[in-house]
Amino acid sequence: MKKLVLTGAAGRLGSYLREPLSQLCDEFVSSDIADNVSNLAQNETYVKADITDLDAMTTLLEGADMVVHFGAVGDEAPMDVLWGPNFYGAYTVWEAAYRNKLRRVVYASSIHAVGMHKKTDFIGIDAPHKPDTFYGLAKCFAEDLASLYWDKRGLESVCMRILSCAQPTNSRAVGTWLSYDDLIHMVERAINTPITGFSVVYGVSNNDRAPVDNAKAQHLGYRPKDNGEQFAAEIYSTDGPLDPHDPANTHHGGPFAAVELGNSGMAHLNLDTDDTGKH
């Protein structure tokens, strides 16, 4: 394609995506609120822009074919913290995409949009929204916004409900792991699938214990290759028996399902200090 835009480019997952996405287009524009990013690709331009600024987003997306939207606060927080970047920021991206006649928005949604479903319920992409936090509620809002803009304005979207895109360090991650290679593969398929309409897909690797079903997202051609089972024996022996009555163990949202609204869920994920991002 001619021009592709990535928001949230200075974040951990955005940083992984920059190089592969630059190979899919003639002109690649990465954006975030950071002053700059390093190691720009030959065809990459970095633009500092705030996703809560509709005019800035409209300018950013001018002439683009698609936008990959990863910009947001990446953890549970009080509503007044999330309202701008996670709620209104989603609106500005879709509205700017519509005003610029983009074909598609590829969105980093999250398992937390359905995080209060029980893990023993093998949910599909059509599971009703059941957010576990204000953060998850923002993902529900953006998914519904995506659906609305497709139904009323013909703007395609792929909403990727990412589970755990970080090195597995806990029992939950054996099933919810999304490897970085599979993340890149999923985003590429969300971009290059000819027709998507409004689509939802779970961002999870080919794990033996994956707790979600992508059967109704087969049209995207997302075929993950990595498997979290390789971590099972060591992690399970370290964690020991889990409390079967703790919502952090029994619900799709993990610790996000157990924390009080407005309190960090990330703080309970036991992630490596050098690998702390999650959507």
UniProtKB/TrEMBL annotation:
Short name of any one Pfam family annotated for the protein: Epimerase
Protein's UniProt name: Uronate dehydrogenase
Gene: udh
UniProt keyword list: NAD, Oxidoreductase
EC number(s) reported in the record: 1.1.1.203
GO molecular function, one term: uronate dehydrogenase activity
Annotated ranges, domain NAD-dependent epimerase/dehydratase: 5-164
Family indicated by similarity: Belongs to the NAD(P)-dependent epimerase/dehydratase family.
Keyword NAD annotated: yes
